[in-house]
Amino acid sequence: xxxxxxxxRPVSRNADTPDDRAALQTAADLIRRGGLVVFPTETVYGLxxxxxxxNAARAIYAAKGRxxxxxxxLHLSDASEIPLYCDVPEKIxxxxxxxxxxxxxxxxxxLPAKPVVPxxxxxxxxxxxxxxxxxxxxxxxxxxxxxxxxxxxxxxxxKPSPTCARHVLQDMDGRADMVLDGGDCTYGVESTIITLCExxxxxxxxxxxxxxxxxxxxxxxxxxxxxxxxxxxxxxxxSPGMMYKHYAPARPVELIKGDRAKGIAYVNECAKEQAAAxxxxxxxxxxxxxxxxxxxxxxxNTGAYAARIFTMLRDTDSLDVDKVYAFLPKDTSGISxxxxxxxxxAAGFHVKEF
Length: 354
Ligand code: AMP
Ligand code: MG
Hints:
By secondary structure, the chain is an alpha/beta fold. The chain has eleven helices and 16 strands. It has helices spanning 18-32, 54-64, 82-85, 93-100, 119-122, 136-145, 165-172, 211-218, 260-273, 302-315, 336-346; strands at residues 7-10, 37-39, 46-50, 73-75, 107-112, 127-131, 149-150, 178-181, 192-195, 202-205, 222-223, 253-257, 276-280, 292-295, 323-327, 351-353. The strands form two sheets. An eleven-stranded mixed sheet has the order 1-8-2-3-7-4-6-5-9-10-11, sandwiched between helices. Strands 14-13-15-12-16 form a five-stranded parallel sheet, with helices on both faces. Strand 10, helix 8 (211-218) and strand 11 (222-223) form a beta-alpha-beta unit. The structure holds adenosine monophosphate (AMP) and magnesium ion.
């Protein structure tokens, strides 16, 4: 850390007031000097550093306790910068053009890395992950810094990703130089990751840009089996992040799948025996009898459940409960695929199906 204390500054969504500009300039200067700045994006908060500076990138791993072999995403202010950091073979150019037509977006693309990208960013892989965030605050910070910003989610490794500054400070106070507080994140789950380095474009992590959208745009998109299944010990993975325990709150999590009425009856029975926190859709909350009921969204508003899922998981840490039960969405379409993917990992694949 360059500073002795973490500075916290509010920034409005449009990043256009004089106070916003002053805060962003301070943050950009810190990035240029090798510091760590937490900034909001439309997905989750990121812990950012100069993406061309090995030492600054190393500080990200140290602040998070992140395994060294889990690479970082390079955040760019515009898709036109992609060729500065990636070698794009002729045969994948048409696919990349289609993907860049969506940008800025909650979408990360894996491409062959140019030598300018430090090994600390790629964790030694030949490929690099790049993304152009929708968030004006994020893009303005990158533009003012004048360098790509390497940023994983701004949580301690293994914990749920932060979607508001309060959650960032629980993990990063004293570990980052500055936090830009831009309010709640819109999507609440990390970016979709697609690789163009395999025989077919392959979805590695679902997010705000949906599988259906990508499949419609690119023609044929494969889905890594690790999106919805646990990995076998020692199995080779396309995305190292899939190997690790992720998104887990302090208490054990059990997921409830299938028939909603039967699931509610089961949870109510369990909650008689133990102090439980239950995560569910708004419409089901009144029927649940547990110590704490946290709810958001519904079958007709799956985006709202996604936007709150990490907040609800994290908020269970400050409740006096023994166990967390979380209802899975009724299917894996749209953004619900991302909710499924995150909840399965938060629960260590512990699912009760009705
Ligand atoms: P986070 O920024 O914490 O959401 O994590 C970034 C995710 O991107 C991790 O799951 C990484 O495994 C994945 N990722 C980053 N760079 C690469 C890469 N070069 N190849 C494959 N996956 C990557
Ligand atoms: Mg993360």
